[in-house]
Amino acid sequence: FDLSTAGRTTQTARTAALLRPPEAYQPAPPEPELPLAEDFETLALGQGLPGWHLASAGRNELVQVTDQTAASGQRSLRVTDNLDNYEPHLYTYPVRQQGPISFAFDLRVGEGAQPSLELRDVDPWYSTGPMIVIGSDSLMRGANGKVLFKIPHNVWMRVELRTVVGDARDGLYEVRVRLPGQDQFQTFSDLPCAPGFKHLGWVGFCSGGTIGSVYEIDNIVLTP
What we know:
This protein has strands at about 35-40, 55, 65, 75-80, 90, 100-110, 115-120, 125-135, 140, 145-150, 155-165, 170-180, 185-190, 200-205, 215-224.
Protein backbone atom coordinates (compact mmCIF):
# COMPACT_ATOMS: atom_id res chain seq x y z
CA PHE A 1 0.00 0.00 0.00
CA ASP A 2 0.98 3.62 -0.41
CA LEU A 3 2.98 4.70 2.68
CA SER A 4 2.58 8.38 1.81
CA THR A 5 -1.00 8.30 3.08
CA ALA A 6 -0.09 6.85 6.51
CA GLY A 7 0.52 8.87 9.71
CA ARG A 8 0.42 12.64 10.13
CA THR A 9 -0.11 14.41 6.87
CA THR A 10 0.07 18.06 8.03
CA GLN A 11 3.40 19.85 8.22
CA THR A 12 4.87 20.11 11.76
CA ALA A 13 7.96 21.74 13.25
CA ARG A 14 11.12 19.72 12.97
CA THR A 15 12.97 18.74 16.10
CA ALA A 16 15.99 20.73 15.01
CA ALA A 17 13.88 23.89 14.98
CA LEU A 18 12.82 23.57 18.63
CA LEU A 19 14.46 25.62 21.37
CA ARG A 20 17.43 23.86 22.88
CA PRO A 21 17.64 23.45 26.67
CA PRO A 22 20.58 25.03 28.48
CA GLU A 23 23.74 23.00 28.74
CA ALA A 24 23.09 22.44 32.45
CA TYR A 25 20.26 23.26 34.82
CA GLN A 26 20.79 25.12 38.05
CA PRO A 27 20.97 22.81 41.10
CA ALA A 28 17.82 22.47 43.17
CA PRO A 29 17.61 24.90 46.08
CA PRO A 30 18.53 23.44 49.48
CA GLU A 31 15.71 21.96 51.52
CA PRO A 32 14.31 24.41 54.06
CA GLU A 33 15.48 24.06 57.64
CA LEU A 34 12.07 23.80 59.27
CA PRO A 35 11.67 24.22 63.05
CA LEU A 36 11.25 21.08 65.13
CA ALA A 37 9.72 21.42 68.61
CA GLU A 38 6.89 19.58 70.36
CA ASP A 39 5.65 19.58 73.97
CA PHE A 40 2.45 17.56 73.22
CA GLU A 41 0.26 19.93 75.24
CA THR A 42 -1.99 20.87 72.30
CA LEU A 43 -2.30 17.34 70.90
CA ALA A 44 -5.29 15.10 71.52
CA LEU A 45 -5.01 12.08 73.78
CA GLY A 46 -4.33 9.00 71.69
CA GLN A 47 -2.84 11.04 68.84
CA GLY A 48 0.52 10.21 67.30
CA LEU A 49 3.40 12.59 66.67
CA PRO A 50 2.57 15.00 63.78
CA GLY A 51 5.18 15.22 61.04
CA TRP A 52 6.86 11.97 62.05
CA HIS A 53 6.65 8.62 60.30
CA LEU A 54 5.70 5.54 62.32
CA ALA A 55 6.69 1.94 61.63
CA SER A 56 4.54 -0.20 63.92
CA ALA A 57 3.03 -2.96 61.75
CA GLY A 58 -0.14 -0.87 61.57
CA ARG A 59 -0.51 -0.70 65.34
CA ASN A 60 -0.66 3.04 65.81
CA GLU A 61 -1.92 2.64 69.37
CA LEU A 62 1.62 1.68 70.42
CA VAL A 63 2.78 5.30 70.03
CA GLN A 64 0.32 7.88 71.31
CA VAL A 65 -0.10 10.98 73.43
CA THR A 66 -0.89 10.27 77.07
CA ASP A 67 -1.82 12.32 80.13
CA GLN A 68 -0.62 9.65 82.58
CA THR A 69 2.78 11.29 82.98
CA ALA A 70 4.71 14.30 81.67
CA ALA A 71 8.05 15.98 82.24
CA SER A 72 6.23 19.32 82.26
CA GLY A 73 2.64 20.27 81.58
CA GLN A 74 0.10 17.47 81.34
CA ARG A 75 0.99 15.35 78.31
CA SER A 76 3.79 13.35 76.74
CA LEU A 77 4.27 10.69 74.05
CA ARG A 78 4.09 7.08 75.27
CA VAL A 79 5.79 4.29 73.32
CA THR A 80 4.77 0.72 74.15
CA ASP A 81 7.12 -1.97 72.86
CA ASN A 82 4.93 -4.81 71.64
CA LEU A 83 6.79 -5.77 68.48
CA ASP A 84 9.98 -7.61 67.56
CA ASN A 85 13.27 -6.02 66.54
CA TYR A 86 13.39 -2.20 66.60
CA GLU A 87 9.69 -1.36 66.24
CA PRO A 88 7.75 0.74 67.11
CA HIS A 89 10.07 3.03 65.22
CA LEU A 90 9.32 6.74 64.71
CA TYR A 91 11.38 9.08 62.59
CA THR A 92 11.39 12.40 60.75
CA TYR A 93 13.54 14.22 58.19
CA PRO A 94 14.77 17.54 59.53
CA VAL A 95 17.52 19.24 57.53
CA ARG A 96 20.48 21.09 59.02
CA GLN A 97 23.41 21.87 56.75
CA GLN A 98 25.83 24.11 58.66
CA GLY A 99 26.86 24.92 62.21
CA PRO A 100 26.20 23.64 65.73
CA ILE A 101 23.04 21.61 66.28
CA SER A 102 21.38 20.20 69.39
CA PHE A 103 18.60 17.63 69.70
CA ALA A 104 17.12 17.65 73.21
CA PHE A 105 14.20 15.85 74.82
CA ASP A 106 12.90 14.54 78.13
CA LEU A 107 12.93 10.77 78.54
CA ARG A 108 11.30 8.44 81.05
CA VAL A 109 12.25 4.77 80.74
CA GLY A 110 10.20 1.97 82.28
CA GLU A 111 11.54 -1.40 83.36
CA GLY A 112 12.53 -3.50 80.36
CA ALA A 113 12.33 -0.63 77.86
CA GLN A 114 15.37 -0.18 75.62
CA PRO A 115 14.91 2.95 73.51
CA SER A 116 17.60 4.23 71.18
CA LEU A 117 18.02 7.47 69.27
CA GLU A 118 20.03 8.30 66.16
CA LEU A 119 20.72 11.44 64.14
CA ARG A 120 21.75 10.55 60.61
CA ASP A 121 23.02 11.94 57.35
CA VAL A 122 20.93 10.43 54.54
CA ASP A 123 22.88 11.66 51.49
CA PRO A 124 23.42 9.47 49.55
CA TRP A 125 22.70 6.62 51.97
CA TYR A 126 22.76 6.92 55.73
CA SER A 127 25.62 7.56 58.12
CA THR A 128 25.02 7.67 61.84
CA GLY A 129 25.97 10.79 63.76
CA PRO A 130 25.06 11.41 67.40
CA MET A 131 23.35 8.39 68.93
CA ILE A 132 22.51 6.72 72.23
CA VAL A 133 21.26 3.24 73.11
CA ILE A 134 19.81 2.05 76.42
CA GLY A 135 20.44 -1.67 76.89
CA SER A 136 18.84 -4.44 78.90
CA ASP A 137 21.40 -3.70 81.64
CA SER A 138 19.98 -0.14 81.95
CA LEU A 139 23.26 1.32 80.72
CA MET A 140 23.17 4.23 78.29
CA ARG A 141 25.81 3.81 75.61
CA GLY A 142 27.14 6.04 72.88
CA ALA A 143 29.01 5.31 69.66
CA ASN A 144 31.00 2.07 69.52
CA GLY A 145 29.18 0.83 72.61
CA LYS A 146 30.91 3.23 74.98
CA VAL A 147 29.20 3.15 78.38
CA LEU A 148 28.04 6.57 79.55
CA PHE A 149 26.10 5.85 82.75
CA LYS A 150 23.39 3.69 84.32
CA ILE A 151 19.96 5.25 84.00
CA PRO A 152 17.31 5.31 86.72
CA HIS A 153 13.92 3.90 85.77
CA ASN A 154 10.53 5.62 85.87
CA VAL A 155 11.91 9.15 86.35
CA TRP A 156 12.17 12.00 83.89
CA MET A 157 15.63 12.99 82.70
CA ARG A 158 16.69 15.63 80.20
CA VAL A 159 18.87 14.31 77.36
CA GLU A 160 20.70 16.41 74.79
CA LEU A 161 22.90 15.37 71.85
CA ARG A 162 25.19 18.04 70.37
CA THR A 163 27.43 18.18 67.33
CA VAL A 164 28.48 20.44 64.44
CA VAL A 165 27.53 19.80 60.81
CA GLY A 166 28.86 21.25 57.58
CA ASP A 167 32.25 22.79 56.95
CA ALA A 168 33.18 23.26 60.63
CA ARG A 169 32.39 19.69 61.72
CA ASP A 170 35.03 17.74 63.63
CA GLY A 171 33.34 14.31 63.50
CA LEU A 172 32.54 14.26 67.22
CA TYR A 173 29.47 14.66 69.37
CA GLU A 174 28.58 14.93 73.03
CA VAL A 175 25.74 13.69 75.19
CA ARG A 176 24.41 15.75 78.10
CA VAL A 177 22.07 14.30 80.73
CA ARG A 178 20.39 15.98 83.68
CA LEU A 179 18.71 13.76 86.26
CA PRO A 180 15.93 14.79 88.65
CA GLY A 181 17.16 17.00 91.46
CA GLN A 182 20.32 17.98 89.61
CA ASP A 183 21.09 21.54 88.54
CA GLN A 184 23.96 20.61 86.24
CA PHE A 185 24.20 18.32 83.25
CA GLN A 186 26.52 15.33 83.17
CA THR A 187 28.49 15.68 79.93
CA PHE A 188 30.04 12.87 77.88
CA SER A 189 32.29 14.29 75.18
CA ASP A 190 34.44 13.23 72.22
CA LEU A 191 32.11 10.52 70.97
CA PRO A 192 32.75 9.74 67.28
CA CYS A 193 30.23 10.17 64.48
CA ALA A 194 30.46 7.87 61.47
CA PRO A 195 32.90 9.25 58.84
CA GLY A 196 30.05 9.87 56.38
CA PHE A 197 28.06 12.06 58.76
CA LYS A 198 28.32 15.59 57.32
CA HIS A 199 24.81 17.04 57.54
CA LEU A 200 21.67 16.25 59.48
CA GLY A 201 18.85 14.70 57.46
CA TRP A 202 17.08 12.21 59.75
CA VAL A 203 16.17 11.75 63.43
CA GLY A 204 14.62 8.56 64.76
CA PHE A 205 13.73 6.61 67.88
CA CYS A 206 13.79 2.81 67.93
CA SER A 207 12.42 0.39 70.50
CA GLY A 208 14.35 -2.75 71.37
CA GLY A 209 12.89 -3.67 74.76
CA THR A 210 10.85 -6.49 76.14
CA ILE A 211 7.23 -7.01 75.11
CA GLY A 212 4.97 -4.67 77.05
CA SER A 213 7.73 -2.32 78.20
CA VAL A 214 7.05 1.41 78.04
CA TYR A 215 8.96 4.66 77.69
CA GLU A 216 7.83 8.26 77.31
CA ILE A 217 9.21 11.28 75.45
CA ASP A 218 8.45 14.95 76.11
CA ASN A 219 9.61 18.44 75.13
CA ILE A 220 11.42 17.64 71.89
CA VAL A 221 13.52 20.51 70.52
CA LEU A 222 15.97 20.67 67.62
CA THR A 223 18.20 23.75 67.79
CA PRO A 224 18.60 25.76 65.68
